[in-house]
Amino acid sequence: MNFLTYLMHLAGSGAIAYYSASQIRDLKTRPNVLAGFQLAESGSVPFLSALSDRAVAEGDTWLAEKLAKHALDETRHGQIFAHALKQLNKQVIDFKSQPETTSTSKSKQQRSPFFVAYFEGYSAEQLKPAAIDWDVFMASTYILELDASKDFTRMANVLPDHEPTSRNLKLGMLSIAQDETGHAAYLYEAMMRRMSASQVQQLVDEWRTRKVNAMLAMISGILQRNGQTRSLVQDGPPSENNSELMVA
């Protein structure tokens, strides 16, 4: 990674960290942030499970086991965020009950500027579990997991300790951050098993640069929307025990 990219990485990470911290700390915006995390974490489970099955079929039992564990962790993460939403008497919107939209407008709504930029040059077909290049999966996911571990830690640390719901969420997010660190570690090891250290570094630098470009696209999108985001939550049933903690 060249020096300019490094500076852009620091600046972009700082801007996203500030925005994320303010969103998770504010009780008005926190539910939408939690819903986004729940959808992202739970949504990755089928992908990781399919990759685990593929690794078994290809005879790589070590990778298959790591991917299966990764899928289990993401399932738990989704449950932690769902529980945090429940404590706020919220839940993720039932999108199936939403009014139908045209396929074109629906496609545009679902496209994330971040991931469009991050995977620029790759088609949807190339990114499916059965087709994705292992090097692409490992390097791209390594960067995301490594950064997520730091992001979740930063967001957890801005949550107050004096209020039970926030304290429970803080502990849950710190647990998730620890898992993300472990995911990044096995993905790095997986790359080292497949190629030389210099090749791994080159691949990591490529995806770090992509991440910088994706963050800039994300920041641009936030500014264009004046910080407004699509609502992902709806009212849920009242929580019976707001002091209950779910980490394990």
UniProtKB/TrEMBL annotation:
List every stretch annotated Disordered.
229-248
Recorded coiled-coil stretches:
none
* Positions with biased composition (Polar residues): 239-248
Q: Which InterPro entries match?
A: Ferritin-like, Ferritin-like_SF
Q: Which domain of life is it from?
A: Bacteria
* Chain ranges passing through the membrane: none
Its name, as the record gives it, is: Ferritin-like domain-containing protein
